[in-house]
């Protein structure tokens, strides 16, 4: 195994552990959403005392969980594919299609990373808030998190592309 391959394996393993831990921690956001929504229902219908914060907070937690879910799914290549065609391709063509697909994902994520980081930076500079009764800095949090997750997916995609290229080269030798 070459030195570059060994470094890629180490980076991939570290990235996978990090992504898995973040995903596991974030999964508890859904339990929190259920708990505070239950609190809201009881407060509203039993005590006739609705809250002003539950809706905004649950939307924010759900957005955080979904945004963090992107790198988790991407890490294991579990995103949507048209497997019907992919599985029926000859092995050599499938490997070339995988390299091309990974390259397209890298290009897309590079553009998305650029755009989201600019939006996040602008949101930070203007101290953007939600504009609701609570007026929390939720847009700053979500835009920054989205940019970070896209960056993480970009690194994952580069590792996927390197692995696809190695697989293609092995098939030729």
Descriptive notes:
With 173 residues, the protein is mainly α. It contains 5 helices and no strands. α2 (54-75) runs parallel beside α5 and α4 packs antiparallel against α5. The radius of gyration is 21 Å and the shape is elongated.
What's this entry about, in short?
The chain is an all-alpha fold and 173 residues long.
Mean pLDDT: 88
Alpha-carbon distance between the termini?
15 Å
Radius of gyration: 21 Å
Count of helices? 5
Query: What's the SSE pattern?
Result: HHHHH
Helix-strand blueprint:
Elements: H1 3-45, H2 54-75, H3 83-86, H4 91-126, H5 138-172
Helix pairs in contact: 1-2, 2-5, 4-5
Keywords summarizing the entry:
mainly alpha; 173 residues
